[in-house]
Amino acid sequence: MKLSAVIGLLLASTTLSTPATAGWFDNLFAAEEEAKPQVTQTQNNDLVGSVMSQLGLNQSQAEGGLGSLLSLAKSTLGGDDFGSIANAIPGIDSLLSAAPALDNESGMSGLLAKAGDLGSSLQGGAQVFDAFEKLGISKELAAPMVEIVKGYLDSNAGEGTTDMLMKGLGAIL
Fold first, then answer.
1. Which of 20, 58, 100, 129 is 20 to 30 Å from the Cα of 72, by its Cα?
2. In a domain, 65, yes or no
3. Are 170 and 128 in contact (CB under 8 A)?
4. Rounded CA separation 76/116 (Å)
5. Residue 56 — very low, low, confident or very high, per pLDDT cuts 50/70/90?
6. Residue 10 domain-assigned?
């Protein structure tokens, strides 16, 4: 048998006996798809993006800081009054859960907890500042962050929602 005929038979038998696979080219694109970051609702949230870009914070700081502010507003206002704010901010539950857990024994809020009635009226604001400290955010960024939330609500919420936010955040303003 000639060498070319042997090579031809060898190639034909290999090709016919090899199972069909996607091939390396398709695997290349599959690996590229897997490498793409998964996008969550809060990453798409314009409010979080605004805080990140305007204040120079990373995503966890922006989400935690917003969550701390919104938690204060929620606890101050109560469920019914907070509803208009909650309806205007997509992914608010994930923002609220991003606020860092604080113990009531340390930090400024811990001192105020021991100060009686006057201390308890100031404790909500102190908890926001303690949360900011835990997140590595300067407390001086609280007011600019509130302004970003106000601007967001002015653009995306019904009338009176911004006023409700300001009422809820009275302890830090």
1. 58
2. yes
3. no
4. 18
5. very high
6. no
Containing domain of residue 98, as a range?
Answer: 41-168
Q: Which DSSP string do the residues of 98-148 spell out, in sequence order?
A: HSPP--TTSHHHHHHHTTHHHHHHHHHHHHHHHHHHHHT--GGGHHHHHHH
Cβ neighbour number for residue 21 with a 10 Å cutoff: 8
Instruction: Let me know if residue 30 belongs to a domain.
Output: no
- pLDDT tens for residues 119-150? 444 456 788 999 999 999 999 999 999 999 99
Amino acid letter, residue 15: T
Angle at Cα 121 formed by Cα 65 and Cα 75, nearest 5°?
50
Rounded to whole angstroms, the Cα distance separating 92 from 63 reads 10
Rg (CA), the chain: 28
- CB 99 within 8 Å of CB 68: yes
Q: What is the pTM of this model?
A: 0.67
In a domain, 14, yes or no: no
For residue 103, give the nearest of 130, 66, 129, 124 by alpha carbon.
130
Q: CA of 120: how far to CAs of 67, 74, 79, 80, 115, in Å? A: 20, 16, 20, 22, 7
What is the amino acid identity at position 173?
L
